[in-house]
Amino acid sequence: MSNFGEFPFYYGKKGVRYHTVESFYQMLTEPDEKRRKSIAKMSGKEAKRSGKSQTLEARFEGKTYILGSADHHELIKDAIRAKLAQHADLARRFGETRPRPIVRLTPGNDSKRFPAPVFCRILTELREEFAARRPFP
Q1: CB distance 79 to 72 below 8 Å
Q2: Could you report the per-residue pLDDT of 31-87, keeping only the tens digit for each?
Q3: Which CATH superfamily is 9-132 part of?
Q4: What is the CA angle 41-104-93, rounded to 5?
Q5: What is the pTM of this model?
Q6: Among the listed residues 47, 50, 52, the one whose alpha carbon sits nearest the alpha carbon of residue 20
Q7: Where are the domains of the chain?
Q8: Is 8:82 a contact under the CB 8 Å cutoff?
Q9: How would residue 114 be classed by pLDDT, with cut points 50, 70 and 90?
C-alpha cells in the first residue's frame, strides 16, 4: 500500500491519470502546469525527487490546501481511495489483511505533513470502507 506502489489511477474532475499516489502527492506542490502533467506520469521515486519540499501549500482543482492540514489529508485519502477502487485485486488483497494493524516503518524519514500515524489511520479507514463494500473471506 505504499504511495510508491505502481498502480496507475485516474483522479479528479478531469480524470487525470497518475502513475502512483506519490506522483499525485508531489504534483500538488508544483506551480507550473506543464511540470504538473510531467510529475503525474512519474514513478514514485522520480516524483519524490521532483517535489517542492519547501512548499507550504498544495493546489488541486482550484482549491489551495495547507500541507499537513486535515483537508490535505482528506485529499490524499480520496486519491488512495480512487487507486483502490480502480484496482479490485489490490483492494481485495488489502482487505484480506484485516484485522492486523497497519504500520509504517520510515526510520528517520517521517513526514511532518503526512506523518506515519495519519497515513496508518487513513489506510485503516479505507481498508474498513472497502471491506464493507466487498465482503472479504
Answers
A1: no
A2: 888 999 999 999 999 998 887 667 889 889 999 999 999 999 999 999 999 999 999
A3: YbiA-like (1.10.357.40)
A4: 70
A5: 0.91
A6: 47
A7: 9-132
A8: no
A9: confident
